[in-house]
Design brief:
Blueprint (H helix, E strand, L loop, with lengths): L10 H20 L20 E3 H10 L13 H13 L14 H13 L14 H7 L5 E3 L7 E3 L14 E3 H17 L8 E3 L20 E5 L5 H14 L1 E5 L3 E6 L7 H4 L18 H8 L22 H8 L1
Parallel strand pairs: 1-2
Antiparallel strand pairs: 3-4, 5-6, 6-8, 7-8
Helix pairs in contact: 6-7
Keywords: Signal
Organism: Phycicoccus sonneratiae
InterPro entries: TAT_signal (IPR006311)
Length: about 325
């Protein structure tokens, strides 16, 4: 279509217009470039939705239910509240319990959600919200940040090439990385007892850990031999395991270690009473091993010595905390 003569620009105006555009372009180019946005961390969701911190939620789900008060896990309450409000919206939790405290009622509600999406394994229907479950549940409602992965299952090589006593121990990748780092630290320091052997792994059943009452049925659990060292060596092993994120304590003939925040741990490790996982109930009430270790010094109780959050307690350091501090 031909432009009307009165609207057709002259050659001079065209040149002037081009010059003006060039001047504006030069001005724009002279401005400092905007700072590049930080990349979204692997496994996280980075949109405009509210954030839910996966690490804090798992820790709260492990510790909150068994205290005698409702003091919230530090740094977790906002994320927990967002998850609880979503549970309320889906009819899985009464609104009165949406308070930022992951108590026994919230645990049961999450167990119902896990069941609703087909989770029915010892290490998946366990009342602990894995990052993957949180992402599925929070779609369109919240973003999951500070995500992490326990990794696939690996078989520990038999000693002396590896750290298994017979080559049958299975653990997840995160647990093995933690154990090997603890041993590297001991070797670096020249600690007594630095050569550690795993005598019992994870993902077991009655055929490989009948005396463990289900605590080895999920992920994040190992037993470490102690009869090959002295008292100093045992103490050094305990310190090294705790340093990288294990709740670890001495038993009669081994160290029992629980990888803190392993969302595949069996209900028997951190639960009590009616479990959300399909385990046999023979009158035994559970162990609450992480809670007992944090507040009572070891994990040998049966969730029957509950204390308020003001009681003396161990400092909780997870594997992700350790890695962040290490840089």
């Amino acid at each position: 279509m031909t432009a009307h003569p009165s609207t057709r620009p002259t050659r001079r105006l065209v040149r002037r217009g081009l010059a003006g555009v060039a001047a504006v372009a030069a001005t724009v180019l002279a401005l400092p470039a905007p700072a590049a946005q930080a990349a979204c961390p692997a496994g996280d969701q980075c949109t405009a939705l509210p954030d839910v911190n996966a690490r804090k939620v798992v820790l709260a789900a492990t510790l909150d239910p068994w205290r005698t008060d409702d003091v919230k896990t530090p740094g977790a309450s906002t994320s927990v509240l967002r998850v609880e409000r979503a549970l309320v919206a889906d009819g899985l939790l009464a609104s009165t319990y949406a308070d930022g405290y992951w108590g026994t009622t919230t645990t049961a509600a999450w167990g119902r959600y896990e069941k609703s999406i087909g989770q029915n394994g010892i290490h998946t229907r366990n009342g602990l919200p894995s990052p993957a479950e949180l992402r599925k549940f929070g779609a369109g409602r919240f973003d999951v940040v500070k995500s992490y992965d326990v990794g696939g299952r690996v078989t520990v090589a038999k000693a002396p090439a590896g750290n298994s006593d017979d080559g049958t121990e299975v653990v997840n990748r995160r647990t093995l990385d933690m154990f090997l780092e603890a041993q590297r630290n001991m070797v670096r320091r020249g600690d007594v007892g630095k050569d550690m052997t795993i005598t019992q792994g994870s993902y077991c059943d009655a055929s490989c850990a009948p005396e463990s009452f289900g605590t080895h049925d999920g992920g994040g659990i190992i037993d470490v031999r102690i009869i090959d060292t002295n008292a100093t060596g045992v103490a050094k092993r305990l310190a090294a395991l705790r340093e990288v994120g294990f709740a670890a304590w001495e038993r009669s003939n081994h160290i029992h270690a629980v990888a803190l925040n392993d969302y595949q741990m069996a209900w028997a490790v951190h639960g009590v009473g009616g479990a959300p996982a399909p385990i046999v109930d023979d009158g035994w009430t559970g162990y609450c091993q992480v809670y007992e270790w944090v507040y009572k010094g070891d994990g040998l109780g049966h969730c029957d010595q509950r204390v308020p959050s003001t009681s003396a307690q161990r400092t909780v350091v997870t594997w992700e905390d350790y890695l962040a501090a290490k840089g």
